[in-house]
Specification:
The complex is a heterodimer of chains A (382) and B (287). Chain A has two domains: 226 residues, P-loop containing nucleotide triphosphate hydrolases (Rossmann fold); 146 residues, RNA polymerase II/Efflux pump adaptor protein, barrel-sandwich hybrid domain (OB fold (Dihydrolipoamide Acetyltransferase, E2P), Beta Barrel), CATH 2.40.50.100. Helices cover 24% and strands 36% of the residues of chain A. In chain A, α2 packs across α3. The model of chain A has no long low-confidence stretch (mean pLDDT 87). With 287 residues, chain B is mainly α. Chain B folds into two domains: 49 residues, no CATH class; 234 residues, MetI-like (MetI-like fold). Chain B has 15 helices and no strands. In chain B, α8 packs antiparallel against α12. The N terminus of chain B is likely disordered. The chains are: A alpha+beta (382), B mainly alpha (287). Chains A and B meet through β6 of A and α10, α11 and α15 of B. Chain A: InterPro entries: AAA+_ATPase (IPR003593), ABC_SmlMolc_Importer (IPR050093), ABC_transporter-like_ATP-bd (IPR003439), ABC_transporter-like_CS (IPR017871), P-loop_NTPase (IPR027417), Sulph_transpt1 (IPR005666). Chain A: GO terms for molecular function: ATP binding.
Chain lengths: 382, 287
């Protein structure tokens, strides 16, 4: 059954933080809500936690209306971006809080509370820190205390707000893996909010891409990365870069280059956008063929080279990403002109029935063979 | 002036001769101001109080009127300070946790007692609660006396000391935000539990500070209380008023009672220092 979110709407003055958001989450699922700041993801989280009320829409859990329940009775564990630990309490007292504030009839005995605090601290690997105060812990340790505190009330839904936002890059990567494993061992339904694509794609069973209060796409990390359904999802998740281009009949034109489209089964598709990913911009095999680009900048990042390229007809510089090894073969300097080639393009279009998108493999121009367009996919959210 | 600037700039490195001179002279100047404005007058009060010997001092402060004045001052403070504690907490909570129409006005009203002269405050109370005031007839008909009685003294004191607690709490609560309260709510805590277990412990030092300042001012208040008191010796004279009356009649006795008032204030500050010293570690841990 899980959580059923239906047509949520939250308006702040003129600004729609949530605009007709529907989403269902299966029991035990690990879902990431991914979007830039202001996309409405935190509003969604606060409504689920009971800290805010929507203007319209409903949230049901196993058929029970969640919105009528007060925040303190929802059984929803919330972990804040900045932890929101109680600074005047020790780690153990923080974790015990949710059990100690229960009405006395439901409150476990002191010994039982201590036992479950010990157990939780053991699980988050902080058993030797029970007597410390939050200020004496590192960021990663505080995050784990916040998690243990939220889990102490045995929530049926766990919400994480930018859980790694305030941590160092190295700690973040370690904690990500740890949290993924932790979720696997607990099996608790979890929704986490982030603006970090890598984080969402690496950790979640399913990713919900949000923009301006609307859901752009829902899918597994692989689906979303391979087939971003909207220009926004493409830009945000696959670093897709817009190119001037259009589709006429069975011909794709991009920057003066023309490809004959093969497998173009649909009529009347109008391309609204053509995107290229950094890793799909490659140096041309033969000089004098492909597009002429001027190398504006070169950055070496963790085994790959990121190049800024100025191409005539494209306003913003294009970013290309190559492995160090590939780059070594060509070796141009900043300011040089090189010939480049697009290996694959993503086409976003509309037809009579709505929005469609497809990824097409582009052969080098000298091959002269038609371009294979992948199957057209329909934007199911529409 | 230039060397004073240099003194603040060169904090990191080894200070030059001129910066050392500047620093020393600044510290000396600050100390001299304190000595001439605070320490010497305080000593003078105690010196004057004991000028005619300890026996005279004892006799002066053990007069029934003086004892009554001490009792009245403590009574007024004991009522006014808790009232302002509750008001200050509530006002600070409202000001920092909610957005509402008239919030700026409320902020200005909290500051009003700082800007209005206490004498004017006393006059306002007479205009409202006095015999010929707006509520005078009604109060008299119901057998209640406010002006020239304890309620009037309390009202005047509450008015004058209103901002201390709220002003101490508002900046702190503002900087803390309400995430911890929200966390407590999602963990199942009720309103009072959140207040006593989360909100109050986080502001307790600022609260204590505000209460002590409020108390010191409540015991020392003169202007507003002067207007509404009626100066009935042994009945409506607080310590500052008693000092004022004695000053015209019995110079040394006035200083004996004044030293008592000074002692109460010094005691308040002493308690504050003691608590800071005892709980200093906790303070550092939290902030």
């Amino acid at each position: 059954m899980g959580i059923e979110i239906s047509r949520l709407r939250r308006q702040f003055g003129q600004f729609a933080a949530l605009d007709d958001v529907s989403l269902s989450i299966a029991d035990g699922e690990f879902v990431a809500v991914l979007g830039p700041s202001g996309s409405g993801k935190t509003s969604l989280l606060r409504i689920l936690a009971g800290l805010d009320q929507p203007d319209a829409g409903s949230v049901h859990r196993d058929g029970e209306d969640l919105l009528t329940l007060d925040a303190r009775r929802r059984g929803v564990g919330l972990v804040f971006q900045h932890y929101a630990l109680f600074p005047h309490m020790t780690v153990a007292q923080n974790v015990a809080f949710g059990l100690q504030v229960r009405p006395w009839r439901l409150r476990p005995r002191a010994s039982a509370i201590k036992a479950s605090v010990d157990e939780l601290l053991r699980r988050v690997e902080l058993e030797s820190f029970a007597a410390r105060y939050p200020a004496q812990l590192s960021g990663g340790q505080r995050q784990r205390v916040a998690l243990a505190r939220a889990l102490a009330i045995q929530p049926r839904l766990l919400l994480l707000d930018e859980p790694f936002g305030a941590l160092d890059a190295q700690v973040r990567v370690n904690l990500r893996r740890w949290l993924r494993e932790f979720h696997r061992s607990l099996g608790i339904t979890t929704l986490f909010v982030t603006h970090d694509q890598d984080e969402a794609l690496e950790m979640a069973d399913r990713v919900v891409v949000m923009n301006r209060g609307r859901i752009e796409q829902i899918g597994t990390p692989e689906q979303i990365y391979r087939h971003p359904a909207t220009p926004f999802a493409s830009r945000f998740i696959a670093r897709g870069q817009p190119l001037p281009g259009n589709v006429e009949g069975a011909t794709l034109r991009v920057l003066g280059q023309v490809w004959r489209l093969d497998g173009f089964a649909m009529d009347n598709v109008h391309a609204v956008a053509v995107h290229v990913r950094p890793e799909d911009i490659v140096p041309a095999l033969r000089q004098g063929e492909g597009l002429c680009a001027r190398l504006l900048s070169l950055r070496h990042v963790a085994g790959s080279v990121r190049a800024g390229l100025q191409v005539d007809g494209v306003e913003e510089p294009l970013e290309a990403e190559w492995s160090e090894r590939d780059w070594g073969r060509h070796g141009a300097a900043v300011g040089d002109s090189i010939d480049i080639h697009f290996q694959a393009l993503t086409i976003f279009g509309t037809d009579r029935e709505g929005r469609v998108h497809a990824r097409s493999e582009c052969h080098p121009p000298h091959a002269a063979s038609p371009v294979a367009v992948g199957p057209w996919r329909r934007l199911s959210a529409e | 002036m230039m060397s004073a600037v240099a003194a603040t700039v060169s904090i990191g490195g080894r200070p030059s001769w001129s910066t050392r001179v500047a620093r020393t002279s600044l510290v000396f100047a600050a100390l001299m101001v304190l000595v001439w404005l605070l320490v010497l007058p305080l000593i003078a009060i105690f010196a004057e109080a004991f000028r005619q010997g300890a026996a005279f001092f004892w006799a002066a402060i053990r007069q029934p009127d003086s004892i009554a004045a001490v009792r009245l001052t403590l009574t007024v403070a004991a009522i006014a300070v808790p009232l302002n504690l509750v008001f200050g907490l509530a006002a600070a909570w409202v000001m920092t946790h909610f957005a509402f129409r008239g919030k700026a006005l409320l902020g200005a009203l909290i500051d009003l007692p700082f800007s209005v002269s206490p004498v004017v405050a006393g006059m306002m109370l007479i205009l409202v609660y006095g015999k010929y005031g707006w509520l005078g007839a009604w109060l008299e008909a119901h057998g209640m006396q406010v002006i020239f009685a304890l309620p009037g003294l309390v009202l005047a004191t509450v008015f004058v000391t209103l901002p201390f607690v709220a002003r101490e709490l508002i900046p702190l609560m503002q900087s803390q935000g309400s995430e911890q309260e929200e966390a407590a709510l999602t963990l199942g805590a009720g309103g009072w539990q959140i207040f006593f277990r989360v909100t109050l412990p986080r502001v307790r030092w600022a609260l204590l500070y505000g209460v002590l300042l409020c108390n010191a001012r409540a015991m020392g208040e003169f202007g507003a209380v002067y207007v509404v008191s009626g100066h009935l010796r042994g009945l409506t004279n607080t310590l500052p008023l008693q000092v004022d009356q004695l000053y015209d009649e019995n110079f040394s006795a006035a200083f004996a009672v004044a030293s008592l008032l000074a002692l109460l204030t010094v005691l308040t500050l002493g308690i504050k220092r003691l608590l800071e010293w005892r709980h200093g570690g906790e303070l550092r841990r939290q902030y």
